[in-house]
Amino acid sequence: MIRISMSLPNKLLADFDEVLKDRGYQSRSKGIRDALQDYILRYQWMNEMEGQRVGVVTVIYDHHFSGVMEKLADIQHDYRQEISASMHIHMTRKYCMEVIIVNGEVTHIRDLTERMMRLKGVEHVKLTSTANGEKLDPTDTLEHDHDHSH
Known about the structure:
There is one protein chain. This protein has helices at residues 10-23, 28-48, 68-78, 106-117; strands at residues 52-62, 83-90, 95-105, 122-131. The protein is an alpha+beta fold. It has a four-stranded antiparallel β-sheet. The longest helix is centred in the first third of the chain and has 21 residues, at 28-48. It is globular.
């Protein structure tokens, strides 16, 4: 085991401790290890996807943060081939949510997602996707698609 120290905003640590308490963790270190493992698995899963996908990218951001809305718009314009639609939701005085429907080559969708994740002012980005059904028999419908990957 290696011991590290890290800086966290008070609210993030308080929220994390609350989750640990709710989940019955005895140790903050164990909770952090599990959270890191989950983060790594999600990244690996996202990296292993291939081919044509359809999905939803959810982005939560602080709309007061300087330039974040313009940067999000610029990124989305760069990926207009993959973006079918988007919806903007005003969550609170501070936070907005963008729900973006994507359809296309997963490498492009992954690049779009990761570019938004890197922006300062963006609090959360999540990609949920499945095979887009293009390989299905034309007489088939999407209800028969059994790829339930998330």
